[in-house]
Structure formats: C-alpha cells, structure tokens
Design a protein that fits this description.
alpha/beta, Rossmann fold, 4-stranded parallel sheet, about 15% strand, binds ligand DLZ, LS/RS, riboflavin biosynthesis, transferase, 6,7-dimethyl-8-ribityllumazine synthase, LS
Length: about 160
C-alpha cells in the first residue's frame, strides 16, 4: 500500500473538539516526525491535543481506550514497528491494529491510524513527515480523525454530515 490516491483534505475548525494523541516511544526520530505532523494537523484545525506517551505500540490500544472512556472526541494513535527476525513484529502489529479498531467501534470514537508497520528504518523515515520524507503519516492520521469526528458529531445531531 502506498500513499498514491490519498484524498486532498480541507481543514475544518475543530476548536470545540477534545483530541488526544497517544504515542509509542520506540524509534525516536520517526516518532518525533509523526508527533510533529499530528501537531501541525491539529494546529491547522484550530485544536490543541493532549499528548500521552506509552512505551510501545502494543500499549497504544489501552491508552486509546482510556481516552475514549474519558470522553475525547477524536484520538490519534502514533507508533512505529520495524520488522525484525522473529514473529514478534506480527504480534505487536496485529494487537495494536485490532485493539485500536476495537476501541473505535466499541466507543464510536474516531481513532486516526498513525501506526507505521515497516520492513526497515528507511521505510519508516520516508513516511515520518521529516525533511526528505515523501509522506507525513502523523499529519494524515490526525486530519482523518478530526474529519471523522465531525461526521460522527453531525450524525449524532441528526444533521447531514459535512461534505469534503
Ligand atoms: C518489544 C518491541 C519490539 C521488539 N519492537 C517494537 C517496535 O518496533 N515498535 C514498538 O512500538 N514497540 C516495540 N516493542 C515493544 C512492544 O510494543 C511493547 O511495548 C513491549 O512488548 C512491552 O509490552
């Protein structure tokens, strides 16, 4: 899967939304890029997120769940998992992915998926929104969570969802 085909996004004022960023701590340089991208997206949407750090990507779902239970309107999950020589990669990736999806559906809260699952450091750096990167997955994940939060809010209010 590549970034080819990604939609153009339009920043909508989100100043009324409570937004949490939950971020793992492995692979510091890439994480710095993802966090910076998420912060830029939130700033473009007029919102300041609360940022919570967890040790690894395996811990992202429980932190996201705590945020959902605390009433956040949108959650952005950021992490980087690099494939190693054992099946550990697959367990961490699927636990994080399944767990985040479960939180989103159980709580009807958008969870932006900013979890990079890469074969090597070069792939991760290319998606981190750093100077020289081709993609900015932290920004994308935050923008997606905020756009979806507006859709959820509009549906709950019985109003047509905003277009675009
Ligand atoms: C153990 C581990 C390994 C090997 N690799 C990564 C990684 O690339 N990215 C990441 O976010 N976390 C990694 N972890 C840590 C696990 O996610 C988790 O924090 C530990 O297994 C403790 O529960």
């Amino acid at each position: 899967m590549s970034g080819h085909g990604a939609p153009a996004t339009r920043a909508v004022d989100s100043s009324g939304l409570r937004v949490a960023v939950v971020a793992a701590s492995w692979h510091e340089t890439v994480m710095d890029g993802l966090l910076d991208g998420a912060a830029r997206a939130c700033a473009d949407h007029g919102v300041t997120p609360d940022v919570l750090r967890v040790p690894g990507s395996f811990e992202l779902p429980v932190a996201a769940q705590a945020c959902a239970q605390a009433g956040y309107d949108a959650i952005v999950a950021l992490g980087v998992v690099i494939r190693g020589g054992t099946p550990h990669f697959d367990y961490v990736c699927s636990a994080a992915t399944d767990g985040l999806n479960r939180v989103a559906l159980d709580h009807t809260v958008p969870v932006g998926f900013g979890l990079l699952t890469c074969d090597d450091d070069a792939q991760a750096l290319d998606r981190a929104g750093l100077e020289g990167s081709h993609e900015d997955k932290g920004y994308e994940a935050a923008a997606a969570a905020l756009a979806t939060a507006h859709v959820v809010r509009a549906v709950r209010a019985g109003a047509p969802a905003p277009v675009g």
